[in-house]
């Protein structure tokens, strides 16, 4: 299904001129991504964190790929989705504590795209610190840190333009 539109990660990566060209290349000639310890730690932590999010905020774990109601090539898979669909969650792991004002721009873009696609009002952004102990990763805290992120219409509009341009470029090259 992801071959029929632009995801949050893709539009976030394509939001800069160099990132746009890199995404076009990756979408036209996808290459397998080699698994690593960072990715494994993230996968291992996502389940427990999503259960914590469900317990604390009543946002269910989610693996559904969602299409925007009107813009059918705008796709997203938030990590959590409330039953009334007014709240979403995004879960990350990191090697450093971001703090409330230091969430990396690529993740803020992903959240804005997910809010746009789902029509949700807010996103619970949760992150877990990753600590290296004797060559293996373990959680750095007893539980994740979190904050609420609201929609940014200006960023969403900008990302919509990027996504449509990216889709046109990839779709046009494939024909």
Structure description:
With 175 residues, the chain is α+β, with helices and mostly antiparallel strands. The chain is built from 5 helices and 8 strands, in the order αααβββββαβββα. The strands form 2 sheets. Strands 1, 4, 5, 6, 7 and 8 form a 6-stranded mixed beta sheet that branches. The chain is globular. The chain starts with 7 loop residues before the first helix and ends with a helix.
Main attributes?
43% helix, 8 strands, single chain, globular, 23% strand, six-stranded mixed beta sheet, alpha+beta, 175 residues
Tell me the radius of gyration: 16 Å
- Give the overall pLDDT as a whole number: 93
Principal-axis shape equals globular
Distance between the termini: 18 Å
What structural class is derived from the secondary structure elements? alpha+beta
DSSP, total strands: 8
Helical element count? 5
The arrangement of helices and strands along the chain is HHHEEEEEHEEEH
Question: What does the main sheet amount to?
Answer: 6 strands, mixed
Poorly predicted spans: none
| Helix percentage range | 40-55%
> Approximately how much beta-strand content do the residues carry?
15-25%
């Amino acid at each position: 299904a992801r071959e029929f539109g632009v995801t949050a990660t893709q539009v976030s990566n394509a939001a800069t001129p160099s990132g746009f060209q890199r995404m076009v290349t990756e979408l036209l000639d996808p290459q397998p991504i080699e698994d690593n310890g960072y990715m494994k730690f993230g996968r291992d932590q996502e389940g427990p964190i999503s259960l914590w999010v469900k317990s604390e905020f009543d946002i269910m774990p989610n693996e559904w790929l969602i299409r925007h109601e009107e813009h059918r090539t705008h796709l997203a898979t938030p990590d959590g989705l409330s039953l009334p669909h007014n709240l979403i969650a995004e879960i990350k792991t990191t090697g450093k504590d971001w703090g409330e004002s230091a969430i990396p721009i690529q993740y803020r873009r992903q959240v804005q795209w997910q809010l746009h696609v789902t029509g949700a009002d807010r996103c619970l952004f949760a992150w877990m610190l990753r600590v290296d102990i004797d060559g293996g990763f373990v959680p750095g805290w007893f539980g994740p840190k979190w904050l609420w992120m609201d929609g940014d219409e200006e960023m969403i509009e900008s990302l919509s333009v990027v996504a449509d341009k990216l889709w046109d470029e990839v779709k046009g090259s494939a024909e």
